Amino acid sequence: MAQQTEMSRGSRLTRIRIGSAPDSWGVWFPDDPQQVPWSRFLDEVAASGYEWIELGPYGYLPTDPVLLADETRRRGLKVSAGTVFTGLHHGPAVWDRTWEHVSAIAGLTRAMGARHLVVIPSFWRDDKTGEVLEDATLTPEQWRHLASQTERLGHEVRERYGLDIVVHPHADTHIDTEENVARFLDATDPALVSLCLDTGHYAYCGGDSVKLIETYGERVGYLHLKQVDPAVLAEVRAQDMPFGPAVGRGVMCEPPAGVPALEPVLAAAEKLGVDLFAIVEQDMYPCAPDKPLPIARRTRAFLRSCGA
């Protein structure tokens, strides 16, 4: 505890820009009766002390850039990134469908003045039902497709929209464990593909975020701040539970109650000497509508105590 107190009272983190996302309000889908309305999310994220937000699932926030710009501006909010979902390991056959999905979101992201597009790989099992959709392990050919098509996506998104893609390792996808993240990074061009390091998902899959930053620091282009409850995670692993039910069980918890400790992660990121967004994402779908705001306020206060 003394070490954490000393660290939190250290020099301010000057290269880290803190934000939050619809995910921290229990928002996983463009439209769902269990989710808070978008206007309430914007009101509450601003009231929590955050300046930056992500777009979340496309269609949750208004897709009219003029309306969205007005709604965010009057609350003192700015957009850091959009999010897309891809299955690029399936190769060129899925490119047209992928680009149709990506282009609409990239256009809105650019219109909002953001510079990043978070790319989440497709799930190998359904995150709600647990239905196995495909093999959890990629073949060598699928790894080659994943690398080449992600590079293609990075090139096209930059050329057409001026955005950088940051690929998000995620539970129940093929980019998950330390081994698979390293394999993906080693197979892709650093000039085209960067990483969105989600501290919670990486811990969920057994990875060490500080070690990754220290090893692949030049590839880390974006952060999601999240923690895992170790006791719940042990149950999830023992039962081979899909990610959606695991979230419902409470596997992602409020900082600083879980792992990894965020102070050393932020300190390691600061040492990279580049400007980085660090967006809070506490997965908790579904959740009671009055639950997110108090957590968001406490989390923002905790991150301030860390110098962020």
What's this model, at a glance?
Its EC number is 4.2.1.44. The protein is an alpha/beta fold. It has helices at 2-8, 38-47, 65-73, 95-111, 140-161, 178-187, 199-204, 209-216, 230-239, 243-249, 262-270, 292-305, and strands spanning 16-20, 52-54, 78-86, 116-121, 164-167, 194-198, 220-225, 227-228, 252-253, 276-280.
Sequence-ordered SSE layout with sheet pairings:
Layout: H1 2-8, E1 16-20, H2 38-47, E2 52-54, H3 65-73, E3 78-86, H4 95-111, E4 116-121, H5 140-161, E5 164-167, H6 178-187, E6 194-198, H7 199-204, H8 209-216, E7 220-225, E8 227-228, H9 230-239, H10 243-249, E9 252-253, H11 262-270, E10 276-280, H12 292-305
Parallel strand pairs: 1-2, 1-10, 2-3, 3-4, 4-5, 5-6, 6-7, 7-10
Antiparallel strand pairs: 8-9
Helix pairs in contact: 4-5, 8-11
What features would you describe in this structure?
The chain has helices at 2-8, 38-47, 65-73, 95-111, 140-161, 178-187, 199-204, 209-216, 230-239, 243-249, 262-270, 292-305, and strands spanning 16-20, 52-54, 78-86, 116-121, 164-167, 194-198, 220-225, 227-228, 252-253, 276-280. It is α/β, with parallel strands linked by helices. It has a single domain, classed as TIM Barrel (Alpha-Beta Barrel). Helix 4 runs parallel beside helix 5 (140-161) and helix 8 packs parallel to helix 11.
